[in-house]
Amino acid sequence: MEHPAKIADIKNVGNLLLEIGSYLMSSGANSHRIRNTINRISQTFGFHAELLITHRALMISVSDDTDSQFFSSLKRTSPHGVNFRMVSGISRMTWRVVEENWTIEQIEQELARLAALPHFPRLITLTFVALAGASFCRLFGGNWFDMMVAFGATFSGLFIRQEMIKKHFNPYLAIFAASLTASLLSGFYMKYGISLTREHAFTTSVLFLIPGVPLINSFSDMIDGNLMNGIVRGMNGLIIAFAISLGLLLAKLIYQI
Predict the structure, then answer these.
(1) Angle, to 10 degrees, between the axis of helix 212-223 and the axis of helix 31-44?
(2) Which ranges of the chain does DSSP label H, i.e. alpha helix?
């Protein structure tokens, strides 16, 4: 029978790898990055890891070179978002694990530090995303008034989405409500002639909802051979695009434009 300390070691490593994989998955990393990160850390501790990645769960099996120790477990992942600070932080941490021979306790402390990093203040996020919407409006040919309309519509749409996510609404419903809010505000000005029949503000006010990361990860996963994850992420992106389109369509029907 194996010594209890050895069994505890492989359990600790396995649970740690699952936690790292869960952080990466919920932060917007693709399957190739997650698998490379897990393998890099497991090999540093002298173990071999096999990882099954699905859209909402991770399953890992960890063993040593002689197969005398074995650990297997499954962990559900949090709802997906985009947090490149977490992704890059874990990537830097793994190289320090390899080069400096970090212990499990050091890795856990670094993960806790990364998870506790503050996000940007909400007002700053709303303002800069709205500025990005106004910039897109300008790129599409809008004038300064169209840019102000796009700014206000984007700001309001993102605010509605954040509030609905905070109240645990379905994320697709939150995207639909944000799209409808933004398109109703920008469509009002287009409908009543304030923007001189320009459609630039109307068409660019929902661009902040475009699912760029899911679609890029979908393509990346399929190119890398992770077809199941690629298809699921692609379908997720398509449902988001459908929710955006539905909000735009409803606004057009309301204003008959």
Answers:
(1) 70
(2) 4-26, 31-44, 84-100, 104-116, 122-139, 144-166, 171-191, 200-204, 212-223, 227-255
Distance CA 134, CA 144 (A): 9
Which helix (H) or strand (E) segment holds residue 207: the answer is none
Same structural domain for residues 201 and 86?
no
pLDDT score of 228 more than 80: yes
From the number of C-beta atoms within 10 Å of its C-beta (0-12, 13-18, 19+), residue 13 rates as: buried
**Final residue in a domain of this structure, among 91, 116, 141:** 116
Last residue of a domain, one of 96, 116, 136: 116
Helix (H, G, I), strand (E, B) or coil at 47: coil
pTM: 0.83
Domain hosting 22: range is 4-116
H/E element holding 59? strand 57-63
Per the structure, the count of domains in the chain is: 2
Do 80 and 23 meet the contact criterion of CB atoms below 8 Å apart? no
Check residue 6 and give its pLDDT.
44
